[in-house]
Design a protein that fits this description.
The complex is a heterodimer of chains A (172) and B (226).
Chain A: H1 8-30, H2 33-49, H3 58-80, H4 92-96, H5 102-108, H6 112-120, H7 124-136, H8 140-147, H9 151-170
Helix pairs in contact in A: 1-2, 1-3, 2-3, 3-5, 6-9, 7-9, 8-9
Chain B: H1 3-14, H2 20-31, H3 39-48, H4 60-86, H5 99-110, H6 115-119, E1 126-131, E2 138-144, E3 149-155, E4 164-172, E5 175-181, E6 189-194, E7 202-209, E8 222-225
Antiparallel strand pairs in B: 1-2, 2-3, 3-6, 4-5, 4-7, 7-8
Classes of the chains: A mainly alpha (172), B alpha+beta (226).
């Protein structure tokens, strides 16, 4: 049995193995335990309810969980700011994307320090907009206003930063 | 949107940092254009950032909450599988079968047209409630008190976008608990679930993200007090 077959024990084992990372991500974004718990709970239940669609690869499942937690937490942040959520489909088919990808390699082989090192290797003026986008849920326009730099500069820095991260994470 | 315009936005796109309309425009362009190599790697690099934060112990109550919900849905699923395998009444123990009760429960299968006729047949062990609300759909709830079971049957449900689903809830002391996601065919849906009428105050239907929510995120389209 497994999560795909609707086995609660499999979900419990998956929770035991992944919940610290999932909760750490939600807490980093939301900054309080109650909201972080909601995001994490919704993510595990989404995986449970759409389990029949899941790829059985362990790394892929963990990567998917983290993507869902991130999406839920950012939606909550944006909702608290009176903004609409991104509006992407709340469906595992969409969230899973294509495979394989570096996020799966992270889930399987890399540790947090690898990602931290890759992010830390970026110049501050590129790292800052990446963090504001990923962990604060700001759009490029909002980042431009917050940092006081032109929108074109923000687009350019985000593009450069993500290109570097793609190479750094792909080579680990 | 041109390829150059899309390339300009790919960094922000990979971080979900575009307004909704721009996200859709870029996504639509990428779906039909082969000129953007490495986009999947870029998206994956964005997703990898989820592993950067420090691990943190969640409260122990969180696991209990999740598993309680999971086990609750498993028992409902088991009841529905048993019903599918052996007929609509198979989850009732034989000694509890009563003609009037069977008549009441049969309406979940027969359809709303016969509901009114069987209302008179309710026994002390079963009662019926009508769901009402701002929806063209009509719903009935049969509660079998001595079994703590309920059958919800609705018709006239409007089609939803693929990223949305109808979800049923029981509400006790203001706390909603999922009673299942409705599988809709031709506007009709029915679902059986556990319901203790001495505890549950009302039943409601909301529209949620596909896959369901752990708590309602929108106002009920239909509801009934017990």
């Amino acid at each position: 049995m497994g999560i795909r077959k609707g086995d609660p024990d499999a979900l419990e084992e998956f929770y035991d193995r992944t919940s610290k990372q999932a909760f750490g991500l939600a807490y980093r974004i939301l900054g309080n335990s109650a909201s972080a718990e909601d995001a994490v709970q919704e993510a595990y239940l989404m995986i449970w309810r759409q389990g029949s669609k899941l790829d059985p690869t362990r790394g892929r499942l963990k990567s998917l969980l983290m993507t869902i937690v991130h999406r839920r937490a950012i939606d909550t942040l944006r909702s608290e700011r009176g903004q609409r959520a991104a509006g992407a489909p709340e469906d595992l088919d969409y969230l899973a994307g294509t495979s394989p990808d570096p996020a799966e390699r992270v889930a399987l082989t890399m540790d947090r320090e690898d990602v931290r090192s890759a992010l830390g290797s970026l110049p501050a003026d590129q790292r800052s907009p990446v963090e504001l986008a990923f962990f604060n849920g700001l759009t490029h326009v909002e980042i431009s206003e917050k940092l006081g730099v032109p929108l074109g500069t923000v687009k350019s820095r985000l593009r450069l930063a993500m290109g570097k991260l793609r190479i750094a994470l792909g080579n680990v | 949107m041109t390829c150059d315009e899309v390339n300009d936005l790919l960094g922000a796109f990979s971080l979900d940092a575009l307004p909704g309309d721009e996200m859709r425009d870029v996504r639509d362009h990428l779906a039909g254009c082969q000129q953007h190599e490495g986009v999947q790697d870029l998206l994956a690099a964005g997703r990898s950032l989820a592993f950067e934060p420090e691990e943190r112990d969640p409260p122990t109550s969180l696991k209990a909450r999740i598993m309680r919900e999971v086990h609750g849905e498993t028992s409902v699923d088991a009841a529905q599988h048993a019903r599918d395998d052996r007929g609509i009444f198979s989850w009732l123990r034989p000694p509890t079968f009563q003609p009037a009760l069977i008549a009441v429960l049969s309406v979940a299968v027969i359809g709303l047209a016969v509901w009114v006729a069987v209302l008179q047949s309710s026994t002390d062990d079963a009662f019926v409630r009508t769901l009402a609300g701002d929806s063209p759909a009509a719903g009935k709830l049969v509660v079998v008190s001595n079994e703590n079971l309920a059958v919800l049957s609705i018709e006239g449900l409007e089609p939803l976008a693929s990223d949305r689903a109808y979800q049923a809830w029981t509400i006790s002391d203001g706390v909603a608990e999922s009673a299942g996601i409705l599988s809709v065919e031709n506007g009709k849906a029915s679902v059986a679930f556990q319901l203790d009428p001495s505890v549950v105050d009302s039943v409601a239907i909301t529209i949620e993200p596909a896959g369901g929510s752990s708590r309602p995120t929108s106002d009920p389209i239909l509801a009934a007090d017990l």
